[in-house]
Each structure stands twice: as structure tokens, then as C-alpha cells.
Amino acid sequence: MSKTGRVIIVGAGPVGIVCALALSKRGIPVTVFEQEASPVKDQRAASIHPPTLAMLDEIGITSRILDKGFISAKYRFHDRVDSSVVAEFDLDRMRDEFRFPFVLQYEQYKLTAAIYREYADGSDFDVRFSHRVSSLSQDASGVTVEVASPGGAKVYRADFVVGCDGGRSTVRKLANIEFKGFRYPEQFIKIATSFDFAEVNPHLVFRNYFSDPDEWCNLFKVRGEKDPGLWRAIFPMQPDEAEETALQPDRIEERLQRFFPKRGRYDIEYVSVYNVAQCVAATFRKGRVLLAGDSAHVNNPIGGMGMNGGIHDALNLAEKLAAVVHGAAGDETLDRYDRQRRYAAETYVQTQTIANKRLMEERDPTVRSRNFDELRRTAEDPERAKAYMRRASLWESLNSAAAIT
Length: 405
Fold this sequence. Notes:
This protein is an alpha+beta fold. It contains twelve helices and 22 strands.
């Protein structure tokens, strides 16, 4: 098999950059194409789960970022209707199983920037912004990619192409890979404020889930750009609520005041509206084209599984792809990547995030009460609580997927 020795990665988000670093550390030269003009300060995922921290530690990242985020061992489920705490899970109980028994609240744009600054050297780890992939073709010996750039259209050749370019992936579309699933009728709105909810609500930890039949809320604290940090609140919009309406300052204020009434207006740092879907690609591999992260699977953000699952894709793929490029394994090894990571996405991430949303938005009072009772029993029983945390942190998905041959 003729080889260039190089892998092209499309997308310079956390999944693409982690995949590039993992390949680079295994001696594989990589070129990363990103259509944005510069690193994006994307206020999206911000929770790095225990097994993800352990995996990132293997490529030298975790020790560099631990002191830059908030360490969060506990997370709580609240009933927004009566302001009670339904259940608490404490990852410190997993100290005998998890090397890092906590979640690191660390924004994805900071993770991406940290890796880019430290490792992207312009040669064997080459990141090119303002480069948009416009066509792709493959043959028995490699992949040809045409890219639109400020200097005009250019053609590049590589052994493999990895699509890490998000839910609307150009790579996935050019490879004619079906994206199966559904889109929720409502959009989600994320609002970040410098108001410190913890000063007025003693029941808060850094990660909180508020169930409500009318308007649930996820409330998390991140470090932001300055102390004491920011609180991010995620709400569902009404299915018929226009994005322009939701983004009006008075509507944002109304939403926050309804969640937590206070004197004076909230100081808003940023706000965004986004569509949410549950989809999985029909395959994560088509010849020499591979998919990882949101290009391969998307889900709702309740539970913080999207970025984590994508990083798990990236590190699984990098190990197998490096072996193939180095000639230590046949390219059928990449079919195992597809089987393992598609199984993890379908069986764990999709199932868990759909269940999380249903728990948060349940309207039937009887069902809500039954769900809360079950959650309390789970949290109060040490073994059941551990089993829940293994599943919620994606530890279980990693181990189950790894057993697939």
C-alpha cells in the first residue's frame, strides 16, 4: 500500500485537536484544516469526565489543565417545582476505581487552545485556519482533498482523512454517509452570568440539574476569563419560540428572573441558541474516510457526554490509525474502531442522554414522583450509586466497547 505517512483532520475543535495530538505523539504527521479564521471561543462543552481525564493524561494534557478549571466531585438533581434536592452523587466515592474521581469544569475552547499553543508546530502538526474542504475523493492508496483557502484552491494528498467537523460535517456529506436520528422540536438557550447563584442558594454545587415540567434547567459553574467565574444556565425554549425573541435582553432577563428572582437585572456575559438532535452516522468508516465526535454522533447536552464521547473516539481512533499507517496492523483494524465507537454512541451516549432529558422534562406528577424516588434510592445505595456514576461518566461505555472485537 502506497503511503504519504500523513493524516488530514478536518475540524480544529477539541476532538480534532486531541486526535491530531495523539497521532503526532505516535509519529504520524498531521494536517488540520479548519474553516474558521482563528481558534473559536466556542462556549459549548465544559465538563471533562473522570475517564476522559485519565485518557488525556496518557498524552500529557491533564496535568497541564487541572489547575485551570474547577474540580467538581459532586453533582445534584433538584426539583425546581419545590426547590428541593432530590439526589446527590459524589464521585469521590469512586476513588478506588477512578484515577481522577471528579469532573473538571474546563471549557472546550480552552482545551483546544492549550493543545494548539503547546504542540502545533507548523510541520508535522500543521493547523491551517481559513481552510475549507470543498471536495474529497479516495482510491486504493490514499485520499485527495481539495481545499478553499485565502491563497486559492489547493489540492492535498494523505493516507486517511478524519472528519471532526461537527454535526453538519462536510466530510460526512462528501463521503455520502447517512446520519440517522431525529431533531428535537425545541431549541436550547445557554445564558452565562457573573451573578453568583451559590452565594444565595446553599444547595448548589458546580453541576446542577433542575427538573421542571414547564422549563427544566442545567446550571453549571465555569471559570470563564476571570474570577470568580461564571454560571451557565441552559434552558429549553418553547417549540414555537423564535430565536430572535429568545435573544432579546428583556426575554433573557425574564427567563433568569423566573428561575431565580432577585433585585436588579442580571449581568449577562454571553448567550447562545442552538438546535439539538440525537443522530448517529450509519458508519464511522468508509474506506479511508473516518468520522469522530459530532461528525459521527450528536446528542443533547444533558450529562455532558458529547465532547467526552468525541474525545474517546479520537483517542481510540488515533491508536488504531497509527498502527495501520506504521504497518503494524491491517486496515481492517479501522473496522473495529467503527464497531466499538458506534456501539458506545448508540448503546450508551444516545440512550443515556435521551433518558436524562425525559427525566428533566417529565410532566406527569405521578411519573415525576416515581422517577425521583428511584433516583433517591439509587443515590442512597452505595453500590447502585457507583453503578450509576460508572454509566454517567462513560466509564462503562469505554469498557463495554473495548471488549468488542
